[in-house]
Amino acid sequence: MLHLHGVIPPVITPLTPEDEVDVEAIHRLTDHLVDAGVTGLFVLGSSGEGPALTPAQREETVRAFVKAARGRVPVLAGIGEPSVRRAVEALEVAAAAGAAAVVATAPYYFLHDDRHVADHLVHIAGATDLPVVLYNIPPATHSVITPSILTTVVRQAPNVVAIKDSSGDWDAFQGMLEAARQLGVAVLQGAEALIGRSMLAGAAGAVPGIANLTPAVACALVRAGKDGAAETVDALQAALDRACEVYRPGYWLAGLKAAVAQRGLCTPHPARGLPRLDPAAAALVATAAVAAIADEERHV
Description:
Blueprint: E1 6-7, H1 23-36, E2 41-43, H2 55-69, E3 75-78, H3 84-96, E4 101-105, H4 114-126, E5 132-136, H5 138-141, H6 147-156, E6 160-165, H7 170-183, E7 186-189, H8 195-201, E8 205-206, H9 215-227, H10 230-243, H11 252-261, H12 279-299
Parallel strand pairs: 1-8, 2-3, 3-4, 4-5, 5-6, 6-7, 7-8
Helix pairs in contact: 1-2, 3-4, 4-6, 6-7, 8-9, 8-10, 9-10, 10-12, 11-12
């Protein structure tokens, strides 16, 4: 089974001004990330605008990242959907496009209790031979994948290999770590502010959106945490926190894409219908991005 560890950025999906997938930019972004030391690419997550893209765009995105990766790192494809049938259709497309694993969320839109969340995930995992990563993101799904749900799903679906936790809840994350140790699955921290602390506590890795901008800092932070180098962790966590200032002037995703555009890797455009930055916010993001890039050069 796939062994997930290190930094696996939830990659942005570069788009052209006409709202089409920018394949050339995907190749530039992939090389930028792989050269910095990431150990995988998670496409079509929140940072990748998966829910905002058409099915054809999602398929094209997976294929483009798989081709750009050239086998250097695995490509994980998000298949977050509100129903089992839609999720299974999405995972079949992702598998055909070459994804090494799929990433499944709790169902969303309709309200679900713990039993239904577990059933949803078990059915999805049972529909594929690919490794499956669970993705706990309560702000988006309005359902929580608890340690108890994780245990239920893993015992019924042995191809579940990891969970990404983006709840930002430290106490819940500690419970997830304990459950995962007993189950033999990896836990990946998705909340940037908790990466250093999580690595020192035994997390396998991190899935930070800001790694699109400063991947070398994120990779160094994860390595320092694995090594138990607490002082280095503190310094690198502070650098990563400063880079996250690009999220603050406006809509966070527009800020992230505009910041990555400062590196010449893509356009700043989110998918059509998502908020964009006004000129004042764009100027603030540009300033924060330039500072973050300089900070990365100092620390790594």
